[in-house]
Design a protein that fits this description.
alpha/beta; 5-stranded parallel beta sheet; 7 strands; about 20% strand; globular
Length: about 140
């Protein structure tokens, strides 16, 4: 019964946590823009939280480096199930210009499982909103 209540609440009010891994911070700025009243991500019930223990969705930006790799895995482990991971921007998806660097640990989906990808350099707030809404619709159809 508690799982059904949590599933219902997650559909109507998913809580997100922004996890910046580095890079140029262009994607971070676009996520902040998506949370402003102009784009109003909160109209979908989305609230930003500062702890992975309170988050349903992790928005990961930037290239994953060897320095942040273990911290990212720990954040992933601290997020309660069923968790959803969104890779925001080309750096999180492929590494982009950082992929040939000696500290690049690999694309995000080789470090932790990814449920949705929002490509772009940086992706516009509309694309971030679209990615999150489509992820919620996909999980709603699965009953998650």
């Amino acid at each position: 019964m508690p799982l059904k209540v949590a599933t219902w609440a997650r559909k109507k009010s998913p809580w997100i946590m922004h996890v910046p891994c580095g890079g140029c911070n262009g994607c971070d700025i676009e996520i902040v823009a998506a949370l402003t009243p102009y784009y109003d991500l909160e109209r979908f019930g989305v609230l930003q939280k500062g702890s992975p223990r309170h988050a349903d969705i992790l928005l990961v930006t930037g290239p994953v480096t060897t320095q942040i790799q273990e911290s990212l895995k720990r954040i992933y482990d601290l997020t309660p199930n069923p968790k959803m991971i969104v890779a925001i921007g080309n750096c999180a998806i492929t590494g982009e210009i950082f992929a040939e660097g000696y500290t690049f640990a690999g694309p995000l989906d080789r470090i932790i499982p990814v449920d949705a990808y929002v490509p772009g350099c940086p992706p516009k707030p509309e694309a971030i909103l679209d990615g999150i809404v489509k992820l919620l619709q996909k999980n709603s159809e699965k009953g998650i």
